[in-house]
Each structure stands twice: as C-alpha cells, then as structure tokens.
Design a protein that fits this description.
The complex is a heterodimer of chains A (150) and B (763). Chain A has 150 residues and is α+β, with helices and mostly antiparallel strands. Chain A has 2 domains: 72 residues, Roll (Ubiquitin-like (UB roll)), CATH 3.10.20; 72 residues, [2Fe-2S]-binding domain (DNA polymerase, domain 1, Orthogonal Bundle). Chain A has 5 helices and 5 strands, in the order ββαβββαααα. In chain A, helix 2 packs across helix 3 and helix 2 crosses helix 5. Chain B folds into 3 domains: 191 residues, Alpha-Beta Complex (Aldehyde Oxidoreductase, domain 3); 323 residues, Aldehyde Oxidoreductase, domain 4; 138 residues, 2-Layer Sandwich (Aldehyde Oxidoreductase, domain 4). Chain B has 21 helices and 29 strands. Classes of the chains: A alpha+beta (150), B alpha+beta (763).
Chain lengths: 150, 763
Amino acid sequence: MIPIILNVNNVNYEIMVKPGEMLLDTLRKIGFTSVKKSCDTGSCGICSVLVDGKVIPSCSYFTMKIQNKKVITIDGVEEKAREIGQFLLDEGVDQCGFCTPGLIMSIIAMENELTEFTEENIKHYLVGNICRCSGYEGQIRAIKNYLEVS
Amino acid sequence: MSVNKNIPKVDGIGLVTGKPAYTDDLASKDSLIVKVLRSPYAYAKIRNINTLAASKVNGVELILTHKNVPDKVYTRAGQSAPEPSPYDKKILDEYVRYIGDEVAVVAGINEEVVDKAIKKIKVDYEIFKPVIDYEKAIGNNVKVHDPDCGTVRFDIGRDASKNIAASYHMEIGDVEKEFKKSDYYYEDVYYTQAQAHLAMEPHSAYAYLDLQDRLNIVTSTQTPFHVRRIIGQTLDMPLSKIRVFKPRIGGGYGGKQFIHGEFFVSLVTLRTKKPCKLIYSRKDVFSASNTRHPMRIKLRIGAMESGMINSLEMKILSNTGAYGEHSLTVLMVAGSKTLPLYNKVDAVKFSGDVVYTNTTPAGAYRGYGAIQGNFALESAIDEMAKLVKMDPIEFRRINMIKEGETSKIFEVMGEGTEGTAQIIKSCKLEECITEVKEKINWDKLYPRTVIDENTVRSVGLAIAMQGSGIPYIDMGSAILKLNDDGFFNLLVGATDLGTGSDTVLAQIAAEVLEIDTSKIIVYSSDTDLTPYDVGAYASSTTYVSGNSVYLTAKKMVEIMKDRAKKLLETEEVQYSNGVFKSKDKEITLADFSNEMYYGEDMQQLVASESYYGVKSPPPYMACACEVEITKNTGKLKVLRCVASIDCGVTLNPNLAKIQVEGALVQGLGMTLFEHADRSEKGTLYNNTFLTYGAPTKMEIGKLDVSFVESYEPSGPFGAKSVGEIGIDTPPAVISNAIKNAFGIRMKELPITPEKIWEAINNK
C-alpha cells in the first residue's frame, strides 16, 4: 500500500492505495458511489469522471497516476448536473439512470472541448457512453435542447 | 389531469445526479466480499474439491461447495408458482454443465483475500464431452442432465434422457389438409442467436441480518416476491424469516427475472451472521448469467389465389443451455404472440422442443420468444406476398387481425398452460400501418432505389403484437394510505426497472384521486412493506399493477367520502379536485386528512385492492426501415426506422416513447451485431463490451416513433402494455429490406456485413 493525496471535488483525501488500484475502485471506496461500475474495460463510459477537465473512464485509470491532478465527480458539479439532468428528465430518457451520471460528465467535458455543436459531432463525442435503455434518440433530443441546437 | 401527461420520472433527479440508489451503493461498507469460482469446462464432474489451503488464507470467512450446501433442485426462473420451468438446478452441484457454472463460493474480508483463496481451491474434474450444437442435442449420447434427477411442477414435456427440457404441441384444424388446398406454398428455416441483455448494472446482491435475526436481501431483481419464495423453499426457511428488497436497478430487460447471486449471499450471511455482497464482474455477467434462447424456426405458410393465407405452421427447436429456466414459456410465446396476427387461417399448428446443451443458460429476455417468432413469420409473410404477387402491405392488410375479432390461439395457448379466449377490443394496426407507410415514403421507396452501382437503398416493413400480462396467473396489488396535509403513500409490489412504472402508477392514483401526482409518494418492491406483485415481466406492470392501483384509488375515494359524510353531517357528499362538498358545506382534502389524524373521531384511512388479468389485450405495431447497403463490403446502414404503436392510451407519452425507442435499438442490435458466440468447446468468444458489439449512438440512424391511440376498455384509463413490443419487428424488417434490395433472403441472425456480402456474391 502506498500513501497518496487524492484531490476529489477540490477536497484532499490522504489515502493508501495498492499499486494496481483503479481510480473507480478508489473513488467508490472513499464514498463516491455516484461513480458506477459496469464494463470493467473502459468501454461503456459509465464510470466517467473529469481529470484536470478531461473526461476519462475511471475503471481503466490507475489511481497512482492521479497525484497532483484534480478529479471531479458528478457530486462536484451538482448544480450543472441538475440542469443537464432536467433536460434528460423532460424527455423521459433518464430511465434506469445507471449510465446517466457518466453521460452528464461527458456532456460537461464536451461543452468545454467542442466549439461547435451539431448532431453529428455530439453523437461522435458521446459515442463511448453506452445506454441500453433509451435507444439514444431521446438522449440526443435532450442534449440538443440543452445546448439549444436545432 | 395526471394521465396522458409527460410527468418526469419521480426518482429521476436522484438517479441522474448519481445519488446512492443501486444495490452496491447501499451495501454496508463492512460487507464481506463474495466471489464465485466458475467452471473452466463445459461439462465435468467434480471428483474432488480441496478447500483446505484456501480456507487458511487470512481473512477468509466461509467457503461453500456442493458438499456443504443444501442438496435440493429448484429453478432460478422468477415465475409464479407452480413454475412452468423444470427444477434442474442445485445451489452448487457436483456436476458443472457450462463454462461459467458455479464450482465454489468464497467469502472474505476483501477482494484480495477472496481472489487469493479462489486460486488455492484445488478441483479435480472428470471432464466429459459436451453438447454445444443444439441441433445435435436430441438423442445425443451425452446427457446434460441425469434422467433420474430434476423434477417438474406439472407436465411440461421434459425428457432429460433425450436432452429435452420442455416441449409443446398444438394444432387448430388440419394444416396438412389445408396446405394441399393452398395455391401457393412457402417454407423455410430461420435461425436466431443468443443475445446478451447488457443491463448496465451487473447482477448485484447484498444480504444482512436485521435486529430480529431475519435475512434481508437487497438485490437487483425484477421479481422480489418470487425471490423470497424460491430462497425460502430451497433453504427450508419460513418465508417470515426473509425480506427481499429491490432498490433502484440498472436495467433488467428480463435478465433479472432470474436468481443470480441471491443464494450465495443468503448462505454466507446466515452462516457468518455478517453482511456480505456479491457483485458480478462484466465477464461473469456475459458468461454466467443468461441469454436469449437461440432458436431454429421452421415456418410453413400456404395461401390461396385470392391472397388469403389458409394454413400456417411454426415448428421450433430452442436452446435453453445448461438449465431449463423459462424453457417452455419462451417457446410458447414464439407462437402465441405472433401467429394470432393472421387470424383468418383455416388451420394453424405450433410445436417445438427446448433442448439442454452445455452452454450458458437462456432465460427471459424482452420479447421473450416473440422476437424470434416474429423474425420467421414476418419474413415468410413477405415471401408469400411475392408469391401471390401482392404488395406486402396489402397482403398483410387483408390477412391480419382487426378490432372486434379473435384468434382461436388465445384460447389454446397460454404461457405454460392453456390460454384465455378474448375478443380484441382495441386494435389500430390498420392505422399504424398507414402511418408508417406514409412516414417511410413507401410508395416512392419500395422496393429499392439504386444510388450507384455499388449502393442500393431499400425499405422493409413488419408488424407485431405482444400481450399485457399473463391472465389468471399473475397478480398485482396496491395499498394507499392517506396522510395529514392530504397526501398519500402508494405502496406497490410492482418492480420499477427504470422504466418509470413508479411514476406511471402514481399518475393512475393521482388521476382517480383528482390531485397532483406530487401528492402520491410511491414506495415499491419490498416484500415486508409492500403488497404482493409478481414483478416486472410479461408486459404486465401498467396493465396488471396499474389496474390494481386504479381499483385501490377508487376504493379510497369511497372510503373518504363515507368519512366526509359523517364529518359534514350529511347524507350526500361529492368529491372532486381535492374537495368534499355537501349541499351547504365543503372541506378540502388537506383539512379532511387533518381531521382524520387530529379531529374528534380519528382514523387512519387505508385502501387496498388486487388485480389479475382475465385477458391479455395485445398492443400492436408496424415498423419500417430504410436501409443503405454497400455491395462490395456488405455493410448495411439503417438510415431511418419508423414505428407506429397502438398501446391503448399512453399514460405517460414520453416514457412510452422511450420504451419503444430503447426496444427498437435492442432489436436492431440483435438483428445486425449482437451474438454471444462460442467455440466448439463452449468458450464464449465475446464476453466484454469491447468484443460483443452493442449498438452505440453511431450505428443507428434516425428513429421516428409515434402512437396511434386506441382505448382498451379493460386497461387502466384505456392503457395496454408497451414495454416489450418495440423489440419484436427489427429482424424481419431488416431481412425484408435486404430482400427488397437484392432479392436475397437473410435467414440467420445477426445479419452481419460478411453474411450480406456472401449472399450477394453467391447469388
């Protein structure tokens, strides 16, 4: 076990981690159950968090790499999450909700990264956020409404 | 008005902001970790299992093997008792019957300890040759189950000596005689594959003992009451000692209508007295939960010169894998939820065998046989339309079921039992077809448009039906409690999988009680605190549970009016919009409720009613796709998918729409990409999201879903079901579109670019 300082949502956590520990497991261990576990292979987007503003799948990111970086989970952007979430709710597309926190983190990252929003580049940016309930069409309607894209 | 309104899901904001909601979020931090050692062989006997070294690992609390668990057969299928599934599974068995079958269970203080202990378990296997190819199962020398083991609750046609888990046969009229009269005849064989559910939340179960030493199981299940019954009867525990609670669950689609880790966490907690949890890894979900039943479907159809179908036969071979969960019922639904579409036939026959193999067990999956049957039937309908030289839409129109009609099949075929006769009181299939035909621009685009020498665009169409619950078998119930300040608790056993049923049921109660939906606080799916409900399956929640809520709310209005009469000292009281009125006095619901709590003659007002279906009114739909196919690669792109659905009155149009959109994409995934494919030895090739090929936002073109409203007199506020039907049509729609493009018939799912390329080039 190695002692590290993990900065999550602008709070420092002094914790012990194993060399091979993944950020997802560390975050859930210290109480951030908002970060969900699903595919184990970095391919579904559900465990997405922001690391220095960039969206990453926390199930496939070593906690050890996080030293001196800032992690933001959905708990750290509650107000924004509620705002985006309301658009998803208005389409009834929240459904089982398991993938939604990860999707919202990706939407936030997309807003920071892209300069132009079209249906195509929204779909392209969010392609890694798998959802089995919604069929995606309603998500796209909600995201376009949120971003005021026609 | 509360129904037919887009009320956002009551639990939505908590879910989207990531609040602790699912089993693993709620499990106590000091839970023991439970993991399963799984079989590396498709078929073997455990000659010896040595757990001594494993049990000496520091931190290991308990190891379970077949030697120290109850030796009793049961079925993992979450169905009403007596289950139409064979009792052929043991909690842990000395035989392992597929790669992933459970060998031993380890509980320890953390993951590392458990992983280390699992590696130290020494198993001596006697390896057998497995049966992997289900077409070679019947009569195979290898028997997946000892013919002397396993039981059935009633005759389901099981014959383990032939590897048959269940079989069924019915005939109305004489199909052979009718085929002889047919002017046109078509027959062919269709194949469907094993599809994974891919619920984003892996199967999760958490157990603890409460202050009364009762076993509490928190689990991602679709059927909490069935779980309680199955655990109790198999562990010989009084049901009073067990509580099962479903928190929020991350998708189900039928995959959680099944016992997964519940037995293991129960035994660990009962023996160690400590809380514990078992969270499946994604690989375990793929290889060791369940899939859709792969089927071989032979379809025979005969028609007269007039274009009328006179005879139909469907014959199925279904693969249930290592255990027979849902084997008989999925088979029967393949016929009973498809063949009544064409009710004007003179004879119809349905038969099939469900076989055991050494592969991952099959189970319930949205569509539940109907998608398999629909693929064969609706492809064959297009083939026959071509033979009789009719437009496939016109051919359907003259042959399909209409409002006011019936089908003898309703009476003959139920789910595992006889069916229930019904006259169709709501069917807007005709209007659905008209809408889809216009929206897809059928008249212009049918059959094909050649874009260039390498690219063809075409359209295909299919229709579908489903049911609304299982009549006389599945029951739902509700309790309403009036609180001070005039709001209600609605307690329901119904199981919200994320579909929004908590919200829809609250809307039904609010509509009857003439108050805002926010005044109905729903609590669901807890065997201690909510009344019985079979759970979420068979497209039943809105219709069956919804009717129980409707009746409960009606009763509550009557109970309240009775008390209001006393309070207002009058013989006659009217209630509307939250106000009780007599000739000269009135009192608001809030004031009335405060009187009930703090007035002179105090009483807690509670109402409860139950409901079981006496028929199963089908929702109907039509669906068409426009596809673009590239000849030199075989790549097929779905440009547009248009669907029109009659599910009665949509109680929450947004949630109904997402049910259909989500189902369509699952259906398109099954049609084009998904396959839980395995080697000859039974090894699953694709057990991760990386290799399985679930649809993303990029694969599917534009979805266009709309509703044609009908009114189902037996449904709550005119509603029928909508949860499953959306998945049924894509396989036939796409196969029909390819036929319209190139004149070739794709008969095996998934329809991959390789198969299309090969079919075009071998034409």
